[in-house]
Amino acid sequence: MASKERGTLLKEKHVRYIESLDKKQDTLEFWLTEHLRINGVYWGLNALCMLRSKDVFNREDLIKFVLGCYVESTGGFAAFPRHDAHLASTLSGIQLLKMYDAIDSLSKSQIDKCVNFIKSNQMKDGSFQGDRFGEVDTRFVYTAISSLSILERLTPEVVDPAVDFILRCYNFDGGFGLCPGAESHAAQVFTCLGTLAVVNRLQDLTKAQVDEIGWWLCERQVPEGGLNGRPSKLPDVCYSWWVLSSLSLIDRLEWIDFEKLRGFILDCQDEKRGGISDRPDNEVDVFHTVFGIAGLSLMGFEDLVPIDPTYCMTYDITNTIKKYPYN
Amino acid sequence: MQLKNELDLLFWSSELLFTLAQLRQFPKVYWIWNHRIWVLENHLDSSVNIWKEELVMVSKLLKIDARNFHGWLYRRIIVRKIEQLTGEKKLFEELAYTTENINNNISNFSAWHQRTVLLSKIFGENENESNAKMIHDEFAYITNAMFTDAEDQSVWFYIKWFIKNKVVRETLEPSEYARLLQELHSNVVMINQDDLEFSGKENNWCLKILIVLDDVLKNIGIETCIEKKKCLEQLINADPLRKNRYLCLLNDGQ
To answer: How close A286 comes to chain B (CA, Å)?
Structure first.
């Protein structure tokens, strides 16, 4: 570790790393990760936005790719052309269009169908299944509600039961699980608080609950400086986003040590080829790259474009979203 | 329904074998767990037997990876199904399962979590008298646990939930509740003293829980000799990663 130069975000290298991902179409790995492609593109573009390098991706090509993932028969987005639509890839598709200010490249009837696709996956208890195969998880509540919010199509019929479901996922320790009764996990805390933030219902939590949430979240920081997702687990760069965005949403961002976390994230950089890994000296990937950079952005380091903890997109983009409840 | 009639028993059994092999290799993939539930729900054998076998299977997987939250979630689904099919609750058996897991590894937070879920259910169904007995036993259990490993946060998160739990507060006679809390309080002070003598440093988690205990005792009209303010000031130095939280609590108290 001594050789590592502490204290700089290798911005140019990260931009080049993200740029290179699109050019790996001759590798097996590229094709094996098809089922996550649209998410990967969103992670890459989001990182580029924070790094002020949005133009590295070709806008027209990307919009074409996203529209190619739209599934006419169901109205959702798939992770890759000719795959099935899913709520997780639907949010990524909508985010990508929003980031290019291109929601209107969908026709009115395509948007209507998309809204119906999302709503049709809501269950009686207010939760959402990811697709018709019935996997229920607070992740899909967030992806559904955030998608509808970006499309500015939230309604009380969808929002109120979803909020009830989220509140039922609150646990004894101050965290949230993936469904009622499930163990607290930092990524689920983000999806739950994020949902409440999108629909302007964070005030449904009591002051005592918010203090407990803040306590549980700040105990995620380990002596190395990184954050873990659950007690007694190893730190991982992606929690720089899940934990910090959550703390930010309840206005307790400074309850962890910024300098220590910054050092941990910077130690996870690949200094030669760019990109950020989960832990120092591991293989980098675009998922940890974007969430490492997003963590630094939330803490206000490195002159990055500020990111909105509610939507995980930069503020210049999210500022234009109409806030719920609509007047 | 259609599938169920078209496919024979061999298909469903081989599908279970196939997903088991996948789970052994990729125990953290949501889709495999989810598919397996679908297979069980649609299995030609709709008796309780396949679900009971499944409980044995998931116990084995949790032995290999005791913190796999997919496994714990899956276990809750399987148990619920067995309860529905047999009409018999398995609350106490499952509570014993968490005890076994915690005794194996006191840092198994997944098991502590499951314990809060089960105890809450048991409290809701029990008569007052048996609840009182359980609460006494639980005070003894957590005391034992914190003496076993006072460094690990799992047990402390559990303790802070347990002492503030509504049923715990309301089931016991006020004097009995106060006595158990004070006993717990002096045990935490003792662990902290031991740490101080042994390592020259106070135990951060003892300080954090003393602050909670101080609040709980104050609420029932008992002053402790431990000063909350002093604990917070100590933590600011001893646990600098979280110093802003302690500063916040100090301000709140003023």
So the answer is: 19
